[in-house]
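Hi all, posting the design record for the shared folder.

TITLE: backbone redesign
STEP: 1 of 1
STRUCTURE INPUT:
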């Protein structure tokens, strides 16, 4: 079995496990066929994951790959073992580059066109938000984090968006990456607890390997 086939088999096994998971797990509420399709990595995710493993770009750290096209995150242990996958909510606006001064603006000053989840390779670590909640800081200077889904504004319908079968309605945040609470608590937090790791956010407009020159 070649490496590509082996990789697809590993992802298939994890996907089947997620389909069989009890209600409340990451693929909860989806039919088996839809859940299986949603958990499979795209060609871009597979390319980046293979190049990370081949070249050791993660430097012995756990890492997360965020696929903006498909609104999905894949979390890996330091050795490249896939630990979990989950739908994500992303910035409302499409784009790959941070608007100037985005990290210094209050939320009220961030217009819809500037609510971007910027692509790139980030050294990430756990920390606190402005309150008591722990989050994964992806790019502190630009106020980009990965955190449990925020449900404070009912009209955003963030939980419904996460559970939908399509990535088309997953653009709602100011730029941060929202994930289900159980995915954060059971997968992301243990991987980054007491250490740093890498978050790779794949581009949706720029060239894939142009964003990650160390993976060429």
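Okay, here is what came back for every position:
SEQUENCE:
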């Amino acid at each position: 079995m070649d490496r590509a086939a082996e990789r697809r088999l590993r992802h298939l096994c994890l996907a089947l496990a997620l389909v069989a998971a009890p209600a409340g797990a990451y693929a909860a509420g989806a039919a088996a066929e839809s859940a299986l399709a949603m958990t499979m990595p795209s060609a871009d995710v597979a390319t980046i994951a293979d190049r990370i493993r081949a070249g050791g770009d993660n430097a012995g750290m756990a890492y997360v790959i965020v696929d903006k096209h498909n609104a999905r995150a894949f979390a890996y242990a330091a050795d490249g073992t896939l630990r979990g996958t989950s739908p994500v909510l992303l910035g409302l606006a499409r784009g790959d580059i941070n608007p100037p001064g985005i990290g210094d603006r209050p939320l009220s000053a961030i217009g819809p066109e500037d609510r971007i989840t910027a692509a790139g390779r980030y050294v990430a670590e756990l920390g606190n938000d402005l309150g008591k909640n722990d989050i994964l800081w992806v790019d502190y200077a630009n106020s980009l984090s990965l955190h449990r889904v925020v449900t404070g504004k009912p009209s955003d319908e963030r939980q419904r968006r996460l559970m939908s079968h399509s990535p088309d309605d997953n653009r709602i945040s100011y730029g941060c990456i929202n994930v289900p609470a159980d995915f954060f608590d059971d997968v992301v937090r243990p991987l980054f607890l007491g250490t740093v790791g890498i978050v790779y956010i794949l581009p949706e407009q720029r060239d894939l390997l142009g964003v990650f020159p160390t993976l060429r």
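COMMENT: The mean pLDDT is 88.
Let me know if anyone wants the other runs.
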